[in-house]
Amino acid sequence: TPEFSYFSRLRSRIGLAELAKLYNRVRESLKASGLIREVFTFVDSSQLLSRVNVWDARDRALADRENEEQDEDGNRLLNNQNVGKYSSDPDARFGCKGKQKFWFGYKRHLSVDMSHGLINEVVVTPANVPDCRVLKEVCPDGGMVFADKGYCVGEVEEVLAEKGCHSGVIKKNNMKAKNRDKDRWLGAVRMPYEGVFARLNKRARYRGTIKNQFQALMQAFAHNLKRLIKIGTDPIPLIEF
């Protein structure tokens, strides 16, 4: 078994920029081979939990007399406005999904090509960044994009139109354009690919957005290579850049 410092040294030697180039090169080869078709694409995000002690950050925030984040009674607070000052992971933030899921760390945004369940794009952001704001970075170049209610706000429609994509975004219940029959169909079509998000590790191994982007790329890389074995594809020639 390699010693504990091996992976850190390897990560430093490769670097995020070179890993991204390699990942993009393999992805373009998958597109050229017809394994990533960008006909149907499932876009969503999942949590990455930061491995830091949030209670220590909270205690420092409450003890800091210069802390300007306070409630109506003058009690000092720890929130997304100041947590970077007190936490040992300055890029991590508090995030929520729905009304019951809360965590401290990051979001991993993925676009999964629904031809073979291969990951097309992956982007890591602090946990408080809304899903709709990252769609432009993971959106495919055409086809139909499936997404949940978190993507039916903001500039999503403009991004899809700019990319030449058809919207498969589920509407919120209080929206006039809500079509429950269509949304049930959208949910059924995307359901088999939700397992891609469930199988990926949800722990942030590192501190900082850049290092966790490296982790997410490596995990996406490993997922795609495993899928190629599973679907029994022929060897893929790498595209030269």
Set out the fold topology:
Layout: H1 6-32, E1 40-50, H2 54-63, H3 83-86, E2 93-97, E3 101-113, E4 118-126, H4 131-138, E5 143-147, H5 156-163, E6 165-169, H6 180-190, H7 195-199, E7 203-204, H8 209-231
Parallel strand pairs: 1-5, 1-7, 5-6
Antiparallel strand pairs: 1-3, 2-3, 3-4
Helix pairs in contact: 1-8, 4-5
Task: Describe it.
There is one protein chain. With 241 residues, the chain is an alpha/beta fold. Helices cover 40% and strands 21% of the residues. The chain has helices at residues 6-32, 54-63, 83-86, 131-138, 156-163, 180-190, 195-199, 209-231, and strands at 40-50, 93-97, 101-113, 118-126, 143-147, 165-169, 203-204. Strands 1, 2, 3, 4, 5, 6 and 7 form a 7-stranded mixed β-sheet that branches. Strand 3 (101-113) and strand 4 form a beta hairpin. Helix 1 packs across helix 8 (209-231) and helix 4 (131-138) runs parallel beside helix 5 (156-163). The protein is flat. It starts with 5 loop residues before the first helix and ends in a 10-residue tail after the last helix. The relative contact order is 0.18. The mean pLDDT is 90.
Please sum up the structure shown.
This protein is of the alpha/beta class and 241 residues long.
Key features of this structure:
alpha/beta; 40% helix; single chain; seven-stranded mixed beta sheet; 241 residues; flat
In terms of structural class, how would the helical and strand content be classed? alpha/beta
Rg for CA atoms: 20 Å
List the secondary-structure elements in sequence, H or E: HEHHEEEHEHEHHEH
The biggest sheet amounts to: 7 strands, mixed
Low-confidence blocks of residues: none
Number of strands: 7
Oligomer kind: single chain
Assign an overall shape.
flat
Helix residue percentage: 25-40%
**Gap between N and C termini:** 35 Å
Integer average pLDDT:
90
**Number of helices in the DSSP assignment:** 8
Strand content: 15-25%
